[in-house]
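hiii so um. not sure if this is the right channel but i have a protein structure encoded as C-alpha coordinates and i wanna go backwards to a sequence. like what aa goes where. can anyone help
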Protein backbone atom coordinates (compact mmCIF):
# COMPACT_ATOMS: atom_id res chain seq x y z
CA UNK A 1 0.00 0.00 0.00
CA UNK A 2 1.34 3.36 -1.06
CA UNK A 3 1.80 5.78 1.87
CA UNK A 4 0.61 8.71 -0.27
CA UNK A 5 -2.61 6.84 -1.08
CA UNK A 6 -3.31 6.36 2.63
CA UNK A 7 -2.66 10.05 3.28
CA UNK A 8 -4.98 10.95 0.40
CA UNK A 9 -7.79 8.71 1.67
CA UNK A 10 -7.55 10.14 5.19
CA UNK A 11 -7.39 13.72 3.86
CA UNK A 12 -10.55 13.13 1.81
CA UNK A 13 -12.51 11.59 4.70
CA UNK A 14 -11.29 13.51 7.75
CA UNK A 15 -10.60 17.16 8.46
CA UNK A 16 -6.96 16.74 9.53
CA UNK A 17 -4.24 19.36 9.66
CA UNK A 18 -1.36 16.93 9.11
CA UNK A 19 -0.98 13.25 8.38
CA UNK A 20 2.21 11.23 8.37
CA UNK A 21 2.19 7.66 7.02
CA UNK A 22 5.29 5.50 7.07
CA UNK A 23 6.04 1.84 6.66
CA UNK A 24 5.07 -0.85 4.20
CA UNK A 25 2.25 -3.38 3.76
CA UNK A 26 3.46 -5.41 6.73
CA UNK A 27 3.35 -2.54 9.20
CA UNK A 28 2.07 0.99 8.73
CA UNK A 29 2.42 3.83 11.18
CA UNK A 30 0.07 6.77 10.96
CA UNK A 31 0.36 10.01 12.89
CA UNK A 32 -2.72 12.18 12.51
CA UNK A 33 -3.04 15.73 13.82
CA UNK A 34 -6.22 17.76 13.91
CA UNK A 35 -8.75 19.55 16.03
CA UNK A 36 -11.30 16.85 15.20
CA UNK A 37 -9.70 14.83 18.03
CA UNK A 38 -10.37 17.46 20.69
CA UNK A 39 -12.33 15.95 23.59
CA UNK A 40 -12.40 12.48 22.01
CA UNK A 41 -10.99 9.34 23.69
CA UNK A 42 -7.98 7.54 22.21
CA UNK A 43 -10.19 4.57 21.26
CA UNK A 44 -12.64 6.77 19.33
CA UNK A 45 -9.73 8.58 17.66
CA UNK A 46 -8.33 5.28 16.41
CA UNK A 47 -11.75 4.23 15.18
CA UNK A 48 -11.95 7.47 13.19
CA UNK A 49 -8.67 6.57 11.43
CA UNK A 50 -9.59 2.90 10.92
CA UNK A 51 -12.98 3.63 9.34
CA UNK A 52 -11.74 5.04 5.98
CA UNK A 53 -9.05 2.33 5.79
CA UNK A 54 -11.16 -0.69 6.75
CA UNK A 55 -11.46 -2.05 3.19
CA UNK A 56 -7.68 -2.05 2.78
CA UNK A 57 -7.28 -3.80 6.12
CA UNK A 58 -9.87 -6.49 5.37
CA UNK A 59 -8.40 -7.00 1.88
CA UNK A 60 -4.99 -7.41 3.56
CA UNK A 61 -3.45 -4.47 1.70
CA UNK A 62 -2.51 -3.24 5.16
CA UNK A 63 -1.46 -5.98 7.58
CA UNK A 64 -0.73 -4.08 10.80
CA UNK A 65 -1.48 -0.50 11.68
CA UNK A 66 -0.07 1.69 14.43
CA UNK A 67 -1.99 4.92 14.99
CA UNK A 68 -1.04 7.98 17.01
CA UNK A 69 -3.44 10.89 17.10
CA UNK A 70 -3.01 14.40 18.45
CA UNK A 71 -4.87 17.66 18.63
CA UNK A 72 -2.77 20.59 17.41
CA UNK A 73 -1.99 21.54 21.01
CA UNK A 74 -1.02 17.97 21.95
CA UNK A 75 1.25 17.78 18.88
CA UNK A 76 3.02 21.01 19.83
CA UNK A 77 3.63 19.67 23.35
CA UNK A 78 4.87 16.37 21.90
CA UNK A 79 7.31 18.14 19.57
CA UNK A 80 8.75 20.19 22.44
CA UNK A 81 9.32 17.10 24.57
CA UNK A 82 11.08 15.23 21.75
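sure thing!! here u go:
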Amino acid sequence: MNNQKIISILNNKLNLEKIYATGDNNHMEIIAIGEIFKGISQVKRQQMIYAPLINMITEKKIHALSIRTYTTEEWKKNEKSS
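oh and DSSP finds three helices and three strands in the chain.
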